[in-house]
Fold Siderophore-binding lipoprotein YfiY.
Amino acid sequence: MSRPVPRLALTALLALASAAAAACPGREITHAAGVTCVPGTPKRVVVLDIGPLDTALALGVKPVGAVSKFADSDDFVSYLNGRTGGIQNVGVITQPSLERILALKPDLILSSKVRHGEIYAQLSRIAPTVLSESVGATWRENLLLWGDALGKKAQAQTLLNRFRVRARTVGQKFPRASISVVRFLPGQTRIMHRASFIGTVLDEAGLSRPASQRVNDFAAMVSQEAIPQMDASHLFYTTWGDPKATTQSEMMGSPLWKNLAAVKAGRAFAVDDDFWMTGTGILAANRVLDDLEKYLK
């Protein structure tokens, strides 16, 4: 039989619980790196990837600092042009500058464990830091997590709900279309599968994929011999950075590419890598739907 807790001990326990609750003057957010106390309404937000930048802007929050895609550029991503004026560059995604971040005196930092888990302790000493587990295919969960951290969880859920309705509507317009997605990078060609950002957007729309792409992983890294696997009624391809530095000309110069049904029918389309691949946010997802409505005829 359990013994009753003495009155003085109970009082002490309640006092400790009350003190623990009072220790967080804002809100506690559970995330991939633990539990973090964030301000009720963050005012000076720094984002360390394109996904949280997309999310913050979609929710009406302009960060004070963000990272760029390339080390030699102060630009962020093209599809967010017009929204990012006044945001300070704090380095590149792969190497944010702790000094620049500290100088901005942020009250919240957003990123992911897969990107910046190794520097979480340093970031947390600068400001409350909330990390998603991963990026890409998890963009919907990330939207809700980062939205919660920004004090806009309900708004984030509304954006996601509206996207899902729109995605289904777009997909229903093109029930006979099948979609192939290819990405050209330096020294590498990828056929994108379902467990990727673009894969989840196409799944939300209910659009068909070729059998070789209905795979629950990220992508297949392929050589020219795999070009026939790229075929579908519509083929969309993107290029990371300078096309001359990627495999694009090599692949598209192949007779196998030229023999694809989508290519011969004039249904192979170059689309923007920034929002088909890099963006991984709700604004990027809606831009993909814009392209699908434009090209699926």
Observations:
- The longest helix spans residues 153-173.
- Confidence is low (pLDDT under 50) at residues 1-5, 16-21.
- The radius of gyration is 23 Å.
- The chain is about 40% helix and 20% strand.
